[in-house]
Specification:
The protein has 493 residues and is α+β, with helices and mostly antiparallel strands. 31% of the residues lie in helices and 22% in strands. It folds into three domains: 163 residues, HUPs (Rossmann fold), CATH 3.40.50; 113 residues, Methionyl-trna Synthetase, domain 2 (Beta Complex), CATH 2.170.220; 159 residues, Valyl/Leucyl/Isoleucyl-tRNA synthetase, editing domain (Isoleucyl-tRNA Synthetase, domain 2). The protein has 13 helices and 20 strands. α9 runs antiparallel to α10.
Length: 493
Amino acid sequence: MTTQPGVASGADELGKAYDPGATERGWYEFWHSRGYFKPVDRGRGPYVVIMPPPNVTGELHMGHALFSAVEDLMIRYHRMLGFAALWLPGADHAGIAGQWVVEKELAKEGLTRHDLGREQFLSRVWDWMESYQERIKGQLQSLGASCDWSRYVFTMDPGPAHAVRVAFKHLYDKGLIYRGERLISWCPRCMTALSDLEVVHEDVSSFLWHLRYPLADGSGVIEVATTRPETMLGDTAVAVHPDDERYRALIGHEVILPILNRRIPVVADEAVDRAFGSGAVKVTPAHDPNDFEIGRRHNLPMVNVMNLDGTMNDEAGPFAGLSVAEAREQVVARLEQDGALARVEPHEHSVGHCDRCGSVVEPLISKQWFVQMAPLAKPAIEVVKDGQIRFYPSRFSTVYLSWMENIHDWCISRQLWWGHRIPIWYCRDCGEMTATDQERLGSCDACGSRNIEQDPDVLDTWFSSGLWTFSTLGWPEETPDLRMYYPGHLMET
């Protein structure tokens, strides 16, 4: 006697309660084993869903269950209509999140990644990734996800890794990727640059300190307000609004920076909020995004007063070596002692924290790799303005355009070990810097020396994510899958 998948032999009546474990698994294995989840071309053309790859950082959650249900519904519907329906599954290496979970496991053993070294640490990460990928596949299958598992892709697989190198070299050769010093978000615990998406802003109850900066000619003082008195050691100007009558006569004059006794100018800038504090603000270009832009407009020096571990450096003078909290306390005490502290008042403001370790994020100047975003954003703006792409509801086009028209260069380098290594090689003999789409560079392109080393940083995980819809289909090779199934039809996340 044959039985249907998931139905026990001899069963002649329904049970009192539905048992999905006994039923669903059998049907799923029946469909999967017969290749029913693979696309079949019946002349109606393709219908393609590329799965947003879950991060391999642990178990799936309810959000994954939701997207699985929605995408499965769409793919089964189009499969039944006769389309060559491809639902391509995969997983993301998760960059900083992936490295962080393995570092937490090492901490339970009393170890750090530096105790293991790069090669051994990466071996441990790979072990984790392989184990949890299987777990995630099993969870998706238990949800009934009718993916074509023969096309499963991991972002660190050889194919996607090659696509990352090709894309990097293409953008680098066009001058759209560059290395430079800019203000970035830095986690002093993870010791890496962060993307805006990796910074979680929380409202914090703190204080607003009002400081007195003496005018250099001895004619009086100008009062500035700040939530971060310890960064005043890196001030290179005081800024006022050009239309603020209170300070117009002081524009172009100099003040004396308390404690360090450094002369700094008073500049006029329309970015100053006249209603904040006294209407005059200290400008610390190396430690604040707004101040950085003011500094660029006025060609101000960038004085970095912090080490990468979050302690104060030699530019902080007598406070070198202190933590930020210690420096804040001692700077305030010294300002009060010198009569430079006007008053202190309670103040609530937003503070950025690393979304992995919870540490306070420090804006600071750092040499990193960046992608020029304005040239890439231009065609994306044009297709919305000329109606080729429409938003529903239409009001979101305004949000989109505001974002794209004010876009900043993207910091793509991360001081991590896990991820796609930046495909730049440096020659120790002639100093040449070479970008390559190969996994290894044999010798320097300029002088032929084999005395070369690869950039130690890795790429932001979103660099590979941005290629996902076509790298999964074989790009940069002109594969049959790429010709048939790109572009896709649905992105749901």
